[in-house]
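I had to read the description of the data format several times before I understood it. The format is easy to grasp once an entry is in front of the reader. For illustration, here is how one protein appears when written out as sequence plus structure tokens:
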Amino acid sequence: MKIFTTNQNKSERIVRFIISLFLLPTPIFLGQSNYSIFLCVIGGILLFNSVVGTCMIYKLFGVDTCTIK
């Protein structure tokens, strides 16, 4: 069993990428607070998910939205 098996479809990966582009620079615009750092970390996770195509939460629950295997 591979760890990084793709389990997201292409449109979902695009949406995650776009959302991550808005969340990553939040410490620059909102200042360095716990909230902005938290949003930046969420953006980093979404960016990782969109680039790799693997969502660990999906893997935990057995969800697979990718139609190509």
Notes: The radius of gyration is 14 Å. Residues 10-61 form one domain.
